Amino acid sequence: MPAKIYTDKDADLGALKGKTCAVIGFGSQGHAHALNLKESGVKVIVGLYKGSKSIPVAKEQGFLVFDTAEAVKKADVIFVAVPDTKIPACYEADIKPHLVKGKTLLFSHGFAIHYKTIVPPADIDVILVAPKGPGHIVRRQFTEGKGVPALIAIYQNPSKKAKKTALAWAKGVGGTRAGVLETSFKEETETDLFGEQTVLCGGTCALVQAGFEVLVEAGYSPEMAYFECLHELKLIVDLMNEAGIAGMRFSISETAKWGDVLVGPKIIDAGVKKRMRAALKEIQNGKFAKEWVAEYKGGYKKYRKLLADGEKHPIEKTGAKLRSMMPWIKKRDIKGAQASYK
Predict the structure, then answer these.
(1) pLDDT digits over 232-263, tens only?
(2) Radius of gyration over every alpha carbon of the chain, rounded to an integer in angstroms
(3) Rounded distance between C-alpha atoms, residue 148 and residue 228, angstroms
(4) 160: part of which helix (H) or strand (E)?
(5) Which helix (DSSP H) or strand (DSSP E) does residue 189 occupy?
(6) 134 membership: H or E segment, kind and range
(7) Where in the sequence numbering do the catalytic residues fall?
(8) What would the pLDDT profile of 17-56 be if each residue is shown by its tens digit?
(9) What letter would DSSP give residue 263?
(10) Strand partners, 79
């Protein structure tokens, strides 16, 4: 049976009328949700820790900013928009002491609830609204009158109004413009982690680097390897995004199509699927989550080393040179982004 897709007509912003919504954190998702909700007519405040570099940024955007604990006290709906590994400490110190019956705790990813790094009291609603895209896209699409598709999930519903709240929030951030699906915290968490690890981030990055290395090791120029294995990837993915895999194949040459259907399955073969299943198993049994939490508690040592090693890959130097020739490609400060983990 096809999943029900909720749109604007199914959601009522009135469910948030008269309520104060606190966005805890002002990073990628936090700033997008806060701004989109405010422009949808919702009363939004921002909660941040003392000394946060985001305080002046949030104030410049017109928000009242409070210490996290104070924001939780004042709010009816609390959106926890801090990194998964930092949620437990933030929750114990600043959120839990001020959760009273009738409040709603909201997340954009189910990690903390599904793996029980926090356990909310039974008398509050616990919901999820997860746009299927990074925060800056959630914000940009909203300002353009469009929206990023979203998921909603209900974990606790003592008020019997949790779904209305979730749909209202999804509408406020633009999700119902594109379509909203209902899922569970378990399904959202496990599929999201699997997608990131095996396809969207981990799988794609490893595939691109391997292809680049094979061409360069065979004597081809790094520039040619970059264009063939990385630069053109966006063009192919854009076609998939617009028309699916079959639609992408319609737009490429017959030679490319033949190479696609003949060679692709030899590269991404049964062995890859076997290792994907192993990765999924470690997500399902909690092993990945435990290792990630331990990595955070240990000071991110392995994590930072692996990121630093990746930055030294030859494809990065080649890419930086070639991208500098294309000023229309937006430049990003990855050093500044990494500083947020310190």
Answers:
(1) 999 999 999 999 999 999 999 999 999 999 99
(2) 22
(3) 29
(4) none
(5) helix 185-195
(6) none
(7) 109
(8) 999 999 999 999 999 999 999 999 999 999 999 999 999 9
(9) H
(10) 23, 106
